[in-house]
Amino acid sequence: MTAKLAGKARSDALASLKEWTEVPGRDAIGRSFKFADFNQAWGFMTRVALAAEKADHHPEWSNVYNKVEIVLSTHDAGGVSDKDVALAKFIDSLA
User: Fold this and answer.
1) Please, how many CA atoms are within 13 Å of residue 72, restricted to the half-sphere of its CB?
2) For 37-94, how does the pLDDT look when each residue is reduced to its tens digit (9 = 90+)?
3) Cβ contacts of residue 60 below 8 Å, gap of 6+?
4) Closest by Cα among 39, 42, 65, 55 to 90
5) pLDDT cut 90: percent of the chain above it
6) Is the pLDDT score of 1 beyond 80?
7) CB-based burial of residue 63 (10 Å sphere; 0-12 exposed, 13-18 middle, 19+ buried)?
8) Residue 50 and which of 1, 41, 85, 90 are 20 to 30 A apart at CA?
9) Vertex 61, ends 12 and 75: CA angle to 5°?
């Protein structure tokens, strides 16, 4: 089982994710993305989906036309873990 990040490890990890914010009322992080059109948004989501499947760690997300909202939390850990930080960094590398 993956451990939830706490203390300095958590604050350091979240500080490294400049565009991500803590989700109010949840132990999760989120970020919004806006693309030129639906095609770019869907292509981005496809690349994220392939990496998420490979890592067996899947985001909560929604897509409306050119906007993608992503929330990351490790459910079996009960909050943000290293898996979320790694996936967030990968997602940032695509954006």
Assistant:
1) 27
2) 999 999 999 999 999 999 999 999 999 999 999 999 999 999 999 999 999 999 999 9
3) 28, 70, 71, 72, 73
4) 55
5) 97
6) no
7) middle
8) 1
9) 60
